[in-house]
Each structure stands twice: as C-alpha cells, then as structure tokens.
Known about the structure:
Number of strands: 16
Strand order of the largest sheet: 3-4-5-6-7-13-8
Distance between the termini: 25 Å
Mean pLDDT: 84
Structural class: alpha+beta
Strand content: 35-45%
Domain Wall-associated receptor kinase galacturonan-binding: 25-88
Helix content: 10-25%
Protein name: non-specific serine/threonine protein kinase
GO cellular component, one term: membrane
Organism: Citrus clementina (Clementine)
Membrane topology: Single-pass membrane protein
Radius of gyration: 25 Å
Number of helices: 7
Amino acid sequence: MFSQLQFPLVFSIYVNVYEEAYSKCSASFSCGNFTDIGYPFWSNDQPDYCGHPGFKLDCQGDTATIDINSQKYDIVEIYHESQILKIAKADFMSNICLINFINSTLDFNLFEYTFSDQNASLLYYCDHLTEHHQPRIQKFTCPINNRSIDCYFSAPAISSYDELSSRCKISLLIPVLALAVEGFTIHSWSIDQVIKGGFEVKWIIDHGPCNDCLISGGKCGYNGTTNDFTCFCPYRPSPRTCFRTQPPANSAAANPSTAP
C-alpha cells in the first residue's frame, strides 16, 4: 500500500519542479535600460538554471553589468541577432585614474573580439617628457597617493618598444572601437569618449538549440549537471525541443517508469 501511494507523490513532485522551471525562465526579460533579453543571458533575480553560467547579468537601476574573467563590464548595447555585446570596463566608466592596474582578457571559450575593435594604450607613472604632438597620443594627470602623476593615452596602441612605453612604469592595453580611434585622431574626441564607447565582443554560444526550443513552445535553460543547454517544457525538460513532450497520462502517474 505504501509503495502504491508513494509513486504518484514522487511523480507529482517531479512534474511540479519542472513546471516551476518552465514558468520562472521567461522567454525574455529586462535588465537596466535593456528589454527583450534572452538566453544565454539570465539576471540576478532569476534561478541560475535559466541561463549559461558565464552570462549572468547584474541589474542595478538603469545599468546592466556582466563579469568576464573576474572583471566587471557595463553593457552598452546588446545585439541578439548578430550575438554581439558592446561593453565597457566598469572601472573606466567613473575614472581612468585606477588604483589597481589589471590587463583585462576575455574568456575565449565564450567570447571573441570583433573586427570593429582596436587596441589602445593607457600608460601610468611616466617620466616627465617633452609634450607629444602626435594626434594619437594625449597626456593626462592622475592624483594617486596624494601626488599628481603623468599618464598618457594612445590610440591606436603604441609598441612596447616605443620610447614613451619605456618611460612609463605601467602600460595597459585596452580594446576600443576602431571608429572611436578615428574620432580621437581626426576629430579630437576626448579620452572619455573613446573609452566609455566600449568595444564589441561576439558570444560564441550556439543559439540553434534555443531557437528550436522556443519554436516548440519551450523555455531555454542550462543543465548544471551535464553543463549543457536544456529546453524546459511544461512537464519535463528536454535536450532540445518540447515537440515530443506530452502531459503525463493517468497510467504514467501510476508508474513513473512509463512517463514520456
């Protein structure tokens, strides 16, 4: 008698768990000033199974940020069709006079740079030099440790063999947009304009399975056990689509091993 009552209860719990996943992983969500965001992204107010672990967005007011290799970036634009993110390093959005100097790198398992990107140089703690008259190099000063230090910005980036680079203690390479480099060298854009304009990365997660899932009426998600995409359907998850997933029949409820 006990085992006969237990099977329907276990199956009911099983179904309810996946109904909850199906309802919580919306087909799209909003974050910051952005709307209609979908998989592989997920937000800090969603369960972690709603998106790929490398694509969690932190939504604070009008701002959306993403962590890539332990570095935080503000999201400037999201282009789902082309799988392009325009991002800018969050530290630079408020101040380019940094305390912690770290060269940022992408997680190349998830992202790649685009042809729209170009490197620029930020150089700190530089010896006093005669003013450069090259349009691609601009001097600025930073108040660090109660003193003013000479710094330089170069777009495009300067070579490590350049005299200026050899006269500075810290040199950072930062990606920026090639159009912004043109604006800096030709149209007198400010350093802030170039850096805050961000740069582009392409996410390289295959979106085909998610498209198939959505077409079949499912919600896209992530299986942390298999580290792979999963399609949440109303009654159970599926590796790709809900087309073969049917509601549980009475006979299936009596014996979970026969569930579809």
